[in-house]
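Lab notebook, page 48
Experiment: co-folding of the full assembly
Goal: obtain a model of how the components sit together before planning crosslinking
Operator: M.T.
Materials (sequences as entered):
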Amino acid sequence: MKRTLVILLRNPLSLIGVILVALVVLSAIFADFIAPFPEHRGSVVDFVNFNKAPNATNIMGTDLVGRDLFSRIIYAFRISLVLGVVVLAIATPIGTLVGLFAGYVGGKTEFILMRLTDVFLSIPPLVLAIAMMGVLEPTLMNAMLAVTAMWWPWYARLVYNIARSEREEGYVLAAEVIGASTPHIALREILPNCLPAILTKMTLDMGFVIIIASSLSFLGLGVQPPTPDLGSMVAEGARYLPDSWWLTVFPGLAILIAVFGFNLVGDALREILGADQ
Amino acid sequence: MRDVLRIEDLVLKFRGYTGVTEVLHGISLNIRAGERVALVGESGSGKSVTARIVLGQLQELRSAQVQGGLYFEEQDLNRLSRRQWHALRGTHMSMIFQDPTSSLNPVFTIGVQFTEVLRRRDPKLSKEAAAKRAGELLNSVSIHDHARVLNAYPFQLSGGMNQRVAIAMALANHPSLLIADEPGTALDVTVQAQTLHLMHDLVERTGTAVLFISHNLGVVREFADRIYVIYRGRIVEQGPTQAVFENPRHAYTRALMAAVPRITGGGVPEIQDMDGAFFDPLEVHGEDRP
Amino acid sequence: MTPLLSLKNVSKTFGHGDHIVQAVRDVSFDVMPGECLAVVGESGSGKTTLANMILGVFGQSSGELWFDGKPLPTRRTLEHRSAIQLVQQNPLSSLNPKRSVGASVRLGLDVYGIGSPSDRWSLVEAALEEVGLPRDFRKRPPAALSGGQRQRVAIARALACQSRLVVLDEPTSALDVLVQARVLRLLNDLRAAKGLSYVFITHDLSVVRNVADRVAVFKSGQLVECAETGAIFENPREDYTRQLIGAVPVVTREEIELRNTLATEGQT
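Observation: model returned without errors.
Model output:
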């Protein structure tokens, strides 16, 4: 753990990643203190200061109804992170359990679980989400549900492949010969050996979930106004390019920072934890 | 007689997260033309990294620091460019590894791999000439159904067959030095014994010098003319095989010999805890250098 | 005396239709209490299949296994499982890298309900001590141990289960010779002290010579020769046995002589 941290901070690229992630997470947590106009996350209208270019008061300018863009971006980070954490918190355990038992038990269990996974994997993720959002109300809650539904099969695949190869290891045979139960072998013996890979994928996926959620919002199917969301901010601003460039450039940069940061950290983790095995 | 390979005061260090570790503490050895020399030691003693240094593979690692003299047929290997060193491998210097099946490329037939090896020395060699030459080489390792073997993929042949193919390939370009890193350890004992005999006869006939890396004292006794015993990055004893086996002088060599269970019986040997004597200075048998 | 383990005409086939592989053919032998029986053979001889049937990893296709005078079912009771334990070749893989060595040793105690839950850690420590490891090793990960120490942990795991028969599957072939000698001594001492029986699977005849009471030589799934260790080495009946002994790399003059006599006898 300590070693991982040291390596993470020593490599320049992963250090940048750590700084970016810290920036995003800290501003999301302390949004109330950092944002110059906390009330602008809601439906505030200020027709005196609308659509203003970046200036001393509004460093990233204001949007079409006069809200401070900087404040809204900081609150949007909060939404993105919450979305990412909730999606991964649900998708990861489901996918992990499916993959773990399919990979270890084999036979019919493997067949049923993995074909189910394949069905989900065969549908393009965004299409699945759009279809679900078409049926359901476009709310934050449903956006999370849609993204989760398309996310767990990737974890099932990942864990399935690791569990398949771990099944051949001597320690699994040892536990079987002793007579340990299947849940014990899957959860206590094999799962710990899958955790580094799962953790790495989760870090990488934070970035992707943020992108997908933004895409949904961009299409008008995700987070609804007046809640600030990076994707819908870009979508809204796109109509006023290139004159009001700040409306798209700053939210776009914010997406870039978050995604790039999580990816750098994820890549570094993959290298560090992979080398451990 | 001239030396095919001479290593002088070789030091190897690895830079890691925890600092620099010295793996080889200055080892020196030489192999004369046509001589079979064994480097014998336990795992982690530094015997395999020595082979990889001679092949020039370790120097490509950024974390490795290699110092010391390396001379191959009187040329200073340290002055060679990467490309020149690469050109030496497979022509003047070749190698055989522990597991023959995984050291052959699984997606090409044996025949294709033979042609490729032969073309390293003679790029214009025709397919027919290569096949003919491959046939002769297979004969030399007692494989007589050439057509079947040349058209086969490595996984279609047994481990022992692959090992023979690997030996034939390694000797295809008449190298002056063959590096054999634990050859045949992955094979069954009877097959291992056969292939070692075969290799022994073949290098004797072709006059190829061999650097034989092994942990198995018995195998070394049968194969090598001269041995170096290596312990934790230091050569502790060297001399003609017969002399070292009949009269081991270094404490470590003695412990190693005593630890091998005998087929004549006598029970499991009792081994003293590792004592400081293992770090005693080098023991040299006889007049080692002419 | 009743044998601890008996195999009666045991066979095992894998696959079906055109792809039948007969891994073990009509094998019968006994292992007496306190005895070390070496099972010798090369790859494909059926050694591992045999071990897996004894351990109950899978059942035999035909024939019977008996343990301590009673038939041994394929679906083992916990009692059978605790009595028959395994030590594998590669201690690097046989211990879970993500769990402490203590947790690996304790698994059997939990499964069989040996000792009260609060006593089990001290039982684990006692088992580690028996194999010559310090008690506080139980908290360490396998990666912090040397190869020999890991193999000792694997042996401690079999001991802690109060086993009576241990299947040793090439227990020392991944170890250096100095370490091998110590582990073999430990195995010998434990057998004597606890009255254990061993099925010692190996390809190394020089090890067999010094640890086994009897030797069973396997070739292509069949038992070709089974006799007292001394008889096997001094007067092997089968050519295959002779070949195996002749292929052992040896270090002393006496051994070379023994091999040479066997080789010349074989030719006559």
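Interpretation: The mean pLDDT of chain C is 91.
Next step: discuss with group before ordering constructs.
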